[in-house]
């Protein structure tokens, strides 16, 4: 992997909470800071294109993401994305057959102690370097085929489709 292209769309991983009523906004992308703090031994560039909760991502946003990734020379792409519509976005990105694309996010904001953000990012970084071209989801310590996974909202985790 020469360089890792990271495209950010917002989601819980980048959320900032303001009060006990869970009022929030999607803040600056956290992945660059996390990778720098971990001292990773590869080059990366972060392209922030959206700051949205994934429930608010539109078809036009998904097309912008697809076009942004297609325009990059990098063959390895990591996308941070909200978990609620991650599978839907992954299915749109499946049209990009010449790149290895891994989507990841967090069930708790990266700024929170005990967040799953760093673990999910680490899983995604390992996956994007090792997998063949295609689109994958890295969540809950596993690599998922987007057509065979769903988010279980009640259990707050990803699981295989029956």
Structure description:
The chain is an alpha/beta fold. It has a single domain (about 5-160), classed as L-asparaginase, N-terminal domain (Rossmann fold, 3-Layer(aba) Sandwich). Helix content is about 25%, strand content about 30%. It is built from four helices and ten strands; from the N terminus they run βββαβαβαβαββββ. It has helices at about 30-40, 60-70, 85-95, 115-130, and strands at about 5-10, 15, 25, 45-50, 75-80, 100-105, 135-140, 140-145, 150, 155-160. The strands form three sheets. It has a six-stranded mixed beta sheet with strand order 4-1-5-6-7-8, with helices on both faces. Strands 2-3 form a two-stranded antiparallel sheet. The longest helix has 14 residues, at about 115-130. The termini are far apart. The model has no long low-confidence stretch (mean pLDDT about 95).
Write the layout of secondary structure elements.
Blueprint: E1 3-10, E2 15-17, E3 24-26, H1 31-38, E4 43-52, H2 59-70, E5 76-80, H3 86-93, E6 100-104, H4 117-130, E7 134-139, E8 142-144, E9 149-152, E10 157-160
Label this structure with key terms.
single chain, 162 residues, alpha/beta, Rossmann fold, 6-stranded mixed sheet, two-stranded antiparallel sheet, 4 helices, 10 strands, globular
Biggest sheet layout: 6 strands, mixed
> What portion of residues belong to β-strands?
25-35%
CATH architecture descriptor text: 3-Layer(aba) Sandwich
How are helices and strands ordered from N to C?
A: EEEHEHEHEHEEEE
Average predicted confidence as pLDDT? 94
The number of E-state strands comes to 10
From the spread of the alpha carbons, the general shape counts as globular
With helices defined by DSSP (H or I, 4 residues minimum), what is the helix count? 4
Radius of gyration, whole Å: 14 Å
Tell me the distance between the termini. 35 Å
Question: What structural class do you assign from the helix and strand content?
Answer: alpha/beta
**Count of distinct structural domains:** 1
| CATH topology annotation | Rossmann fold
Which parts are unreliable, with pLDDT below 50 for 5 consecutive residues or more? none
CATH superfamily: L-asparaginase, N-terminal domain
CATH domain class: Alpha Beta
Spatial order of strands in the largest sheet: 4-1-5-6-7-8
The residue fraction in helices comes out at 25-40%
């Amino acid at each position: 992997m020469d360089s890792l292209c990271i495209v950010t769309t917002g989601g819980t991983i980048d959320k900032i909470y303001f009060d006990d009523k869970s009022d929030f906004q999607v803040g600056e992308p956290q992945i660059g800071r996390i990778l720098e703090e971990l001292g990773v031994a590869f080059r990366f560039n972060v392209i922030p294109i959206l700051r949205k909760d994934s429930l608010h991502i539109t078809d036009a946003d998904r097309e912008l993401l697809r076009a942004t990734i297609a325009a990059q020379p990098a063959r390895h792409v990591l996308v941070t994305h909200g978990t609620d519509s991650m599978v839907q976005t992954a299915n749109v990105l499946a049209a990009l057959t010449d790149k290895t694309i891994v989507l990841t996010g967090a069930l708790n904001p990266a700024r929170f102690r005990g967040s799953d953000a760093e673990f999910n990012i680490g899983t995604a970084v390992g996956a994007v370097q090792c997998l063949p071209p295609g689109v994958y989801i890295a969540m809950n310590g596993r690599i998922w085929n987007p057509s065979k996974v769903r988010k279980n909202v009640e259990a707050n985790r990803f699981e295989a489709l029956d």
